[in-house]
Amino acid sequence: MSTLHLDAEALYADLLAGVRRAWQPASALVGIWSGGAWLAERLQRDLKLDGEPGVISSALHRDDFGSRGLSGGADHTKLPFEIEGRHIVLIDDVLFTGRTTRAVINELFDFGRPAGVTLAVLVDRGGRELPIQPDFSAARIALPRGQRLSLARDEQGRFSFDIEDAA
Predict the structure, then answer these.
(1) pLDDT per position as a tens digit, 145-162
(2) Is 39 helix (H, G, I), strand (E, B) or coil?
(3) pTM confidence score
(4) Can you say how many angstroms the Cα of residue 40 is from the centroid of all Cα atoms in its chain?
(5) Residues 124, 94: Cα–Cα separation, whole Å
(6) Contacts 24+ apart (CB under 8 A), 125-131
């Protein structure tokens, strides 16, 4: 474990403010499975939006699908609204290489062509391998490539981070 301490709840408050500024009429929240989905769920409630946010999985469009196979997150895409012509606010917990975001955008287009996609993340940890940048990030940090930053959620719905050495 690392000694880096991030206040996930304070970062969430910044994310909420950033999403509120980016919001357009007829926008829809879509959270990337799983941490982004947790964030989108709470944002939907805190922004007092009707309905449920969408949830999207990267499993079917990953560039490492051949070696990784179908993961447990493959069936987590649930978009309870039309994508076609709608502005999508895509939410993720940690942006790293950009590969998950690329896969999710491909999945999103399987459901229609959005008017636009805004990417908002809790933490941008750098290390991009693809030209994908967030429109909003609550924090930017640098971690060694061999460490993994993961969002955790307790029974009360409060967020925290786990930092682990990658296996």
Answers:
(1) 889 999 999 999 999 999
(2) helix
(3) 0.91
(4) 8
(5) 6
(6) 125/94, 125/95, 125/96, 125/149, 126/96, 127/96, 127/97, 128/96, 128/97, 128/98, 129/97, 129/98, 129/99, 130/97, 130/98, 130/99, 130/101, 130/102, 131/98
